[in-house]
Write the structure tokens for this entry.
Amino acid sequence: MDTIYALATARGKAGVAVIRISGPRAHEALRVLGAVVPAPRVAGLRRLTDAQGVLLDEALVVVFEAGASFTGEDVAELHVHGSPATIAAVLRALSEIEGLRLAEPGEFTRRALENEQLDLAQVEGLADLIEAETEAQRRQALRVLSGAIGERAESWRRDLIRAAALLEATIDFADEEVPVDVSPEVLELLDRVEADLRREAEGVQAAERIREGFEVAIVGPPNVGKSTLLNALAGREAAITSEYAGTTRDVIEVRMDLGGLPVTVLDTAGLRETEDVVEGIGITRARERAMAADLRVFLLDETGQAEGLGPHPEDIVLRGKGDLRGGGAETISGKTGQGVAHLISRITSVLETRAARAQTATRERHRVAIVRALTSLAVARNQVERGEGGAELAAEELRMAIRALDSLVGRVDVEQILDEIFASFCLGK
């Protein structure tokens, strides 16, 4: 296998930059750069030189042996000064060493997967951790990276293997009298696994919203204070405001962090009947985005209506321009800030309740695998309850369920998605 190298930290000026080398020639590459290889996992200050003996930098060097590194291979890390010139010089010197090549995006992590340092779910967790912007995203990604999905999948796998073994025992001794009816234990194992899998499947949507962000749409008739409220929530002039109805023609988005949750707040065109073609397009988009949003904040005027759109049970309904209406518990004013803090608290409370439904599985790929397993388990249960003659079919369905769960952690059926996953990684990962 080739020895690969790449800058593992962000490009640009920094106090320190880390260059990672992984593969069979990683430690030899240090010697070529004129450095004495330090003891494994013990940092040492070393002078790095090029092939002509010219000093490149003084770097902190750390090496890891195969089996005790991120990739599972021999690894060397060079902690050099973070100037672009220094980084370029060291990378150029590495490129001149025989047997070394620049890593492809995600190649270090792919080697970690291939060398069984990480399972596929952990790889996805690492990708999410790199992209995490809020505390909830960080916690969820770290939980997946720590191997939580793999641990649960292994627990389900053990139970299903036990159930299949019990059924296969009845098949092997079909011509003899089996002293114990295995059906009760098999059904108990299926009950436990099915209950867990249903909770996981139901929690995927909440986990995906934590990963990708919730959407909250501000909707209502024109000139009721929607854009002013958006600006108050954003703390800046994100949307144009005026006293003229129909100012907002397109959906304006502002990304926020509410209680550690990623939230995109949408300012939409005022909902009304109009003959203006451009405004009409904006109103259509407003309705579509509002219907697809996770939560809607209705700002209403004295009519108490939003043309063509009604609130769902968890939606928040307020009267806009509270500064002109004498205030009140169900009014709000983005202009004066009246009720804005309370609104943020209400939005956060609703979304936190939804986020709490998240389990361990975090992606649609996970949900699909879990649903496949549940489908097989349902058929297996029917065969077991049928009694005589159903054991063989039930055992086969259990094997199919196990195979579906194995795909969660990358044991089977995942080759087609690997390229897509690793394409999201940066060069040094």
